[in-house]
Amino acid sequence: MNQTVLMTWEWLTDPANWQGRGGILAQSLEHLRLSFVALLVAALIAVPTGLWVGHTGRLRWAAVNLTGAVRAIPSLGVLFVAVLLLLPRLRGELAFELPALIVLVALAVPPILSGTYAGVDATDPAARDAARGVGMTGGQVLRQVEIPGALPLIMSGLRSAMLQIIGTATIAAIVGLGGLGRFLIDGQASRQYDQMAGGAIAVAALALLVDQALALLQRVVVSPGLSSAARVR
Amino acid sequence: MIGGVAWSTLGDLTLRHLYLAGLPLLIGLVLSVPLGWLAARVRWLGPPLIAGTGLMYTIPSLALFILLPLVLGTQVLSDVNVLVAMVIYTVALLTRSVADGFASVPAPVRQAATAMGYGELRRVGAVDLPLAIPVIAAGLRVAAVSNVSIVSIAALIGVSQLGQLFTDGFNRNAMGPILVGIVACVALAVALDALIVLVATLLTPWSRRRVPA
Amino acid sequence: MIRFEHVTKRYPDGTVAVDDLSLAVPRGGITVLVGPSGCGKTTTLRMVNRMVEPTEGRITIDDDDITARPAAELRRSIGYVIQHAGLFPHRTVLANVMTVPRLLGWDRPRARTAAMEAIEKVGLTADQARRYPAQLSGGQQQRVGVARALASGPDLVLMDEPFSAVDPLVRADLQQEVRRLQRDLGITVVLVTHDIDEALTLGDSVAVMRQGGHLAQFATPADLLAEPADDFVASFVGKDRGYRALGFADVRVTPRAERSVQVGEQVRAGSGWVLVTDGSGMPLGWVDGTGWGGPVREDRLHRLGAVASPDDSARALLDAALSSPSGRGVVVADGRVVGTVTTQDVLGGLDRRHSVGSVGKDAEHTVGSVGVVEESGRVEGDAP
To answer: Which of B200, C2, C26, C61 has its CA 20 to 30 A from that of B47?
Structure first.
């Protein structure tokens, strides 16, 4: 046990493992790139949809049930299905990346969608009524009252979507995707536990860092009036 | 045979999957109740406790499966790694639910129970915990469903359960086993979910709708 | 000012919230819509700023059909206050109050100045203006709600159960505040409440509505109490309406002259209850000189009881007499004692009025006219 910890430590602290094309640094950046692309695409789909569902109240049941239903679907299985279906139809670089990206986006949409929907839906009915009553148009109510009020839940939706993405991107190394998952999968294949464990530590650290960064962003964008710290003294 | 998978294999893998996802659910529940109670009861302890357990959830499952042998000194292929990882995820999800559940108990009810002479611990068991069941059950359902999904990833480190159908199918370029595996996983998740709903309903007869006369 | 012409609101499921309502809300003053839940009072109010669109009929403000301009534009010209204030939690108090001026396209400095003025008007401080709604009490939040409605200087303000969610003491404060603001600004207020006491206290005119969206009676509070149009109104205004009507009844009672002493002066034993004032004639309390005599000390003082002014209603005068330990209610004008009244004086005044007309009928009499002397003042407690 001490031996493996030591080996993992040595692997992690060896500068050679950090540099170069397949190094920890490059793979971290690749992992981040894939994750943020997926998050961005998912948010572009899910946030407007969630706002629409929340603002109009239409398709509410779908938004409510979607997250639960998708959570039950095993991401590894879906990943393999996507690759088997799409790989023969794609060429070049895209062939490796696209199926995985589609799965990452598909898994990230529900948490963002339901967070956005729930955030808008949770707007104080009195505030919404007052907003209309003082003469805001539908768009103004959405922009000035519902979206700012929904931000905490939109942000937590984004955070859980990002965790899902980072985790799934890790296992997507098995279908050839770049990123830190490579160390875990390649280490497994070549029976090099130090590389697996070192990569696992790097992934865990990356996930924690990104989550904390998003938490920080949440603090910046969410009005202090909405945080639980702002209560009657 | 179904989708190129023998029924007996499917049965064995499903049972293994149930064991790897279900046992941690029970252990996690038992651990979360005191943790969640502490978080709800001790004001200053609540936020750090919930944030701390929540932090465990950010670690990607494959990374956790691989790292646990380092911490536990177990073999990489051991079931224990998966079981412990799933307990960690369950506790990470449930601590918050349990705390929310205890917080959902109406203060007048708690005060009435205290006024009648219940001691703290007895009151928690006799009054608070039963009333917190609906909220705890909601959290448990989320944990159960996501446990079933996460366990399948353990196939990548060679721990056999339904996820093995995914890797087998992928290696043989066969869609059949993968689809069978997905359907079996979803079915297992739905079954666990339904079981929790049923047990929660049986445990909280007061929250059922009035029986028509 | 606001005219409802045969207005009906029918919902798709067939429920009729307001049924053929015709009503002219006068300019200025406070008009209260009151009635039990489900009587359509809130729907009626919300039709004025088109939060609800009528199914039939027409509503005009100053003879302009309200459907002539876009709903949002109409609403910006009308103040709107609702039950739970409906403040925007993510905006500071100041930003909340700046909402309508900003919607109207005012530049920031102008909107800010208007908002700060409105915030001061409702009795909040600059420090509170920087806070978020969650950092204020319920009553303070409701004040912000009122300030938000007033910031752009509308002529008309709609209030939907504005004080129902705050505790009784704060409610009384807010009621007075709204009363004062309405008078100071000369605006028209239309207010919905389910509380008949609030309606009678605040309303210059009161529209009583009944289930099914019918207008039962539209009258002044005094008339409602004196002559309810039907059994529904009679039962809605309450069992003790005769007593309540005293609040609107003016009586011709001239306060009797009252001998008073100051702290330090002598009171002879056997002189009965003696009123104590300070140097300027402001009443301080009573001393019991029945079995005690000596120099008046602060610790000898009994509470004053309620104090009335000469032009107060019969209810206030009676209350002063009933709450005074001597049985003589102190009447004060400009901070000085002008005399006292007994319950007999007030009741006698009421009896005399009954021979002329019913209570409240002649509400236009502003009777408090101290000049009308009915009994020559005599000096009490001067006998021995």
So the answer is: B200
* Residue A230 falls inside a structural domain: no
**The domain defined by C248-384 carries CATH number 3.10.580.10:** yes
* CATH of segment(s) C2-247: 3.40.50.300
Q: Which residue type occupies C2?
A: I
Contacts of C97 in chain A (CB under 8 A): none
User: Closest to A225 (Cβ–Cβ): which among C103, C132, C149?
Assistant: C132
Question: Within 13 A of C175's CA, how many CA atoms are on the CB side?
Answer: 22
What is the mean pLDDT of the segment spanning A58-70?
A: 78
Touch criterion met for C and B (3+ Cβ pairs within 8 Å): no
Helix (H) or strand (E) holding C219: strand C214-219
Q: How far is A91 from chain C (nearest CA, A)?
A: 49
- Strand, coil or helix: what is C4? strand
Subunits close to B (at least 3 CB pairs below 8 A): A
Alpha carbon of A4: minimum distance to chain B alpha carbons (Å): 7
How many pairs of residues across A and B have Cβ atoms under 8 Å apart? 125
Q: Is A233 on the interface with C (CB under 8 A)?
A: yes
**Domain harbouring A45, CATH code:** 1.10.3720.10
Torsion on CA atoms B168, B161, B145, B36, rounded to nearest 10:
-140
**A contacts of C91 (beta carbons < 8 Å):** 148, 223, 225
Q: Indicate if the pLDDT at residue C368 is higher than 60.
A: no
Residue A17: inside a domain, yes or no? no
- How confident is the model over C243-260, as a mean pLDDT? 81
Is the domain spanning B10-203 CATH 1.10.3720.10? The answer is yes
Domains: count for chain A: 1
What is the ipTM, given to two decimal places?
0.86
Owning domain of residue A182: 25-222
CA distance C76 to C71: 9
Give the list of residues 6+ apart from residue B88 with CB closer than 8 angstroms, or none.
B56, B64
The answer to whether residue A231 sits within a structural domain is: no
pLDDT of residue C172: 86
Is pLDDT at C237 greater than 90 in this prediction? no
Chain B window 37-66: which residues touch A at a Cβ cutoff of 8 Å? 55, 57-64, 66
Q: Does A2 map to a domain? A: no
CA pair distance A110, A161, nearest whole angstrom: 8
The domain locations on chain C are: 2-247, 248-384
pLDDT band (50, 70, 90) for residue A216: very high
For residue B209, what pLDDT is reported?
61
**Among C140, C83, C37, which residue's Cα sits nearest to residue A126?**
C83
Average model confidence (pLDDT) across chain A: 87
* Cα first-last separation, chain A: 52
Q: Mean pLDDT of all residues in chain B?
A: 88
Q: Is A touching C (3+ C-beta pairs, cut-off 8 A)?
A: yes
C313-331 confidence digits (pLDDT tens): 888 888 888 888 888 989 9
